[in-house]
Design brief:
The chain is α/β, with parallel strands linked by helices. It has a 5-stranded mixed β-sheet with strand order 3-2-1-4-5. α2 links the parallel β4 and β5.
């Protein structure tokens, strides 16, 4: 199964594509979609949507997993990220893949480490270990997206969600 994991943002969107074979996972691709700061928000959203569609066309994922939003402080940033997440969701649903799964930060932390209060470094170390990588994927947004994809792989393997 090919899984596209997405860490939403409006300046930087992390993506990670893994191949899941039973209990083994392999990184196929990861990186970020970065929007130019000079562009207006609608142009940035279009750029993100095009980037997501290109990833889907290139990798033809069986499932797409995306992190749900959680914000405590900055409402303006939250609104921009929510709008970017909306563009991402529409791109995913408008493409060939209708298997879209959403995971909270708590679910991702628990799936990756077994501990809901794990810090970013612990998550990144587990991504590195679970994918057999020599180094932690960079930038952080790409590592986060791989964690989202791995969360779906773990959840799918444990609950048999694939095919729903």
């Amino acid at each position: 199964m090919i899984i596209l994991g997405i860490d939403p943002g409006y300046a930087t969107v992390g993506y990670g594509i893994i191949k899941s074979e039973g209990s083994k996972n392999f990184a196929l691709d990861y990186g970020v979609i970065t929007t130019p700061k000079t562009q207006k928000l609608p142009e940035r959203l279009a750029y993100i949507a095009e980037g997501i569609r290109a990833l889907i066309d290139k990798h033809n994922p069986d499932a797409i997993s995306i992190e749900e939003l959680f914000f405590q402080n900055n409402r303006k940033t939250a609104i921009f990220v929510a709008e970017a997440r909306g563009a991402i969701l529409v791109s995913c649903m408008g493409s060939c893949c209708k298997r879209l799964y959403e995971y909270t930060p708590l679910q991702i932390k628990q799936a990756m480490t077994g501990y809901g209060r794990a810090d970013k470094n612990q998550i990144q170390q587990m991504v590195k270990i679970m994918l057999g990588l020599a180094d932690i994927p960079r930038p952080d947004d790409a590592a986060d997206a791989l964690a989202v994809a791995l969360t779906h792989s773990q959840t799918n393997r444990l609950t048999g969600m694939f095919g729903i």
